[in-house]
C-alpha cells in the first residue's frame, strides 16, 4: 500500500475558486474579503510538492500565500506526512508564516549608499578650496540622507501595516483549513 494525493479531490473542495491559477499549479480563492492562493501539491516541482518513500508513506509540502495587492504577499509552508495507509502521521512543528516587513514602496539600500559616495567625493574634491569645511558639510549631508531614507522606509512600513484588510489575521485559519483539505485528498492504493 501507498498513500496517494488526489488533485481533483483537492480542487473540488474550493467551489467558486480559480482552480487553474498560476498556469494550473495553484488555486486562488477568497475568504473573509481577503484573497489567498494554495499551490496544488505535485503540480509544480518548486512550490507544493509530493514525495513518496519506499514504505509508501507520503510527504506533502503545502505552500500558501495571502495575496496583498499593492504590497508584498505573506507566505506559509507546511509539511504533512502520511502513513502508507493514508493516515496523517504528523505535521512539521516548524509551521511558519513569513510576513514581509515593509511596504511596496521602499528605498533600497543601494540608493542612499550611492548618494553618500557621491556627496563624500564632492566634499573631498572641494576640501582643498574650503580648508576642509566641505568635507564636514558632506558628512552632515550623508547623515541626513541616511536618516531621510530610514524614516521614509519606516513610514511606508507603518502605512502598509495599517492598510491590511484583515487577511493576515485570517491567514493562520486559512492555512489550517487547507491542511485539512489536503488530508481529505489522501487515499491509500495497493
Describe the structure.
The protein is α+β, with helices and mostly antiparallel strands. The chain has 2 domains: 2-103 and 166-189, no CATH class; 110-162. It has 5 helices and 10 strands. The strands form 2 sheets. Strands 3, 4, 5, 6, 7, 8 and 9 form a 7-stranded antiparallel beta sheet that branches. A hairpin with a 2-residue loop joins strand 3 and strand 4 (34-39). Helix 3 (110-130) runs antiparallel to helix 4 (133-162).
What key phrases describe this protein's structure?
alpha+beta, two-stranded antiparallel sheet, seven-stranded antiparallel beta sheet, single chain, 10 strands, 190 residues, 2 domains
Give the topology, please.
Blueprint: E1 2-5, H1 7-12, E2 18-20, H2 21-24, E3 26-31, E4 34-39, E5 49-52, E6 58-67, E7 74-82, E8 88-91, E9 96-98, H3 110-130, H4 133-162, H5 167-183, E10 186-189
Count of all domains: 2
Helix content: 40-55%
Q: Average pLDDT, to the nearest integer? A: 84
- Major sheet size, sense and barrel closure: 7 strands, antiparallel
The amount of beta strand, in percent, is 25-35%
Q: Provide the gyration radius in Å.
A: 25 Å
Shape: elongated
H-E order:
EHEHEEEEEEEHHHE
Structure class: alpha+beta
Describe the structure concisely.
With 190 residues, this protein is an alpha+beta fold.
